[in-house]
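Usage example:
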Amino acid sequence: MGAISDASRNRVSAPLAALTAAAMALPGVHARAADLPGANPLTLYGSHLDYSESGGRMHVRVNEGTATVPVGDRVLLVADALQDLISGASPIFNAPGPNGQPQQVLSGASVNDRRNAGDIGASLFWAENQLTLRQGWSHENDYKSTWTSIEARTFLNQKDTTLAAGFAFNDDGVSTHDTPDDFKTRIKRDFFVGVTQVIDERSLIELSLEYSHSNGYLSDPYKLVFVQSTGLLPDARPGQRRQTAVTGKYLLYVPQIDSALQVIGSLSNDNWGIDAGALEVQLKKELPGQWLINGGGRYYAQSSADFYQPLFQAPPADGLHTSDYRMAGFGSVSWLAGVTKQLTPNFSVQFSAERSYRRYALRWGGAGFSGDNYIWSFYLVTLQAQF
Amino acid sequence: MLGLYRHPFRAMGSRCELRLYARSEQEASAAAHGAAADVQRLEAKYSRYRDDSVTAAINRVGATGGAIAVDDETASLLDYGATCFAQSDGLFDLTSGVLREAWGAHCRGLPGAGTLERLLQRVGWDKLRWSRPCLEFLLPGMELDFGGVVKEYAADRAAVICAEAGIRHGLVDLGGDIRIIGPHPDGAPWRVGIQHPRRPDGVMATLDVARGAVATSGDYERYLAIDGRRYCHIVSPRTGMPVQGLAGVSVLAQECVVAGSATTIAMLMEARGPVWLEEVGLPHVWMDQDERVGGTYGAAVR
Amino acid sequence: MVSTLRAASAGLVLVVAALAGCTTVPPWEHGTLAKPVMSVDDPPQEQQQKLRTYGAKEGGAAATGVGGGGCGCN
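Running the assembly step on the lines above writes:
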């Protein structure tokens, strides 16, 4: 492969700018942007996910199908449907053990739940811009949700820069198995802005900022807290939550190993006291025969929510209390890997897996206990076909 | 299921080929015929040899002096020619066609100085007035030759016609002037081998091009050998003599017209060619008369 | 919370301004960037599944993403 010297990476010279401008004026020398939906045929995706946790806890299987189809040159329609099958036990509360240390108590009976969800959307393309609207629905016995989102993108600098912004509105209802028709409302508004920038001929970076605002019933109706003085109380979280997150993604092609290095870092915080950060590093490599392999690791850590304790001595004065293991201080390390094979120019298959070790010892800070530690893992098989 | 279809044909005095990835023979054929038809349209429209071409109509007016109004496409080509004239210090000149009389295939020896001087008086973009859509020759006996632009322009148009017919991967090759429609379906770039200017079986450079265009000029395409010296087909509008500088040069650009004019201007700049190419900033490869290779695309392969 | 948001968006604006100084890569040099390994996004369903898993198992906000909503995963 040729090396590109610094001379060719400088800003466009005056002679080149003049020639290019005159060339642009010649009729028929340039086609429209190659990313127009007319360029993409009907595409179908299907996937099967198998997720499980250690210790006889949750097991989830998800089957999902998506179809995208262009309409003319400027519109792309998408429709998606999925079904989750959820079984297994989950933690309800922590009880003090013989020596006073907290111990997790799992739900006795195995839960069998089914969730159906779908969404439809449309993307419009014009000049160097793109606008996407989506509407989705999700339904389980004890949880229903509708959501709407809008996202706008614009390309600048001959597509070297992409600016994106979006907004999503989620309207959820939460009930329980015992009172399935008594839905409590939960609303969430999400905003994001992002920029993707090509740095040079072999690297690029993406930065995004996200802010979300939730209000309503934000507690978990299936969780309880153990209070020394009064016994079990329901999970009670604030009626409002504001979260901010910033994420950076960096991709660098490394010619010495003919692979791409991908680094994703993120930081978040919220008004519940949970600070979190994640760092993921992966290598992706193409192999002869249209194979692509990727693999790497991820480290995540968070601090506990202000109103989290594994066990409570007395009911907190502000009435907020949770012992949910996801609100605790913990960290996790995971490895992840994937293999993709392009079987024919129109058909590809992908297999990916991740295994994550959740550990109290790796926490960012705050309260928690190691009895909450567990391992989750999933594998995912995806097929993609173009027509 | 994308297959690779090749459509060779002859046009513009060269061997041309369309290489298209398509889902079927029919899809490839439809795109290829549309593209080839446009190339042949342009060949006929700007041909020096046809009485009914736009070039012939312009040159009939040029022979006597006078003015003519031209169509939009021709006007854009004249604007492009004017830009090339300005960016090349007057070396790239659409009016230098008359010098062919001295260096044409029929000629048997070096033209005399008097012949050249006489011809040079009728050469010069500054000796006409171009104000869209009106072209006015201020002297009689002038001629326009679009040969330096039309082949590359045709390559660009052919690629766009194929893209608009649904072809996403392929290339257009008009006698070495190449415009990529898209890389191979797996994203791999096209490997373009540039002929060695002195060894017909050799390669000056191998370029990996996924998008854009590559054009090549050299003193080996058409030349006269007189008394053992090589006189190439690119003639300087200042001296009337064929240029002596680079043996060959290839330039990569977004459009084939830009790549093509860059190679032509680099040849016309003679010894200054490599310096000019560095200033322009397009990736390029050149070879000089001593078979030394240089340029900012470092993949020279012997 | 608001000050964090302000600081973060100020940071983003500065970064965008700095990135404006990046070189423009001409299209013919996009060969490497066009490789499948250099794709910024994962294939559609994989991206969503990953984010849903992180969102269900972690308390941090980075996991949620726009437009993914609606599951009561415990």
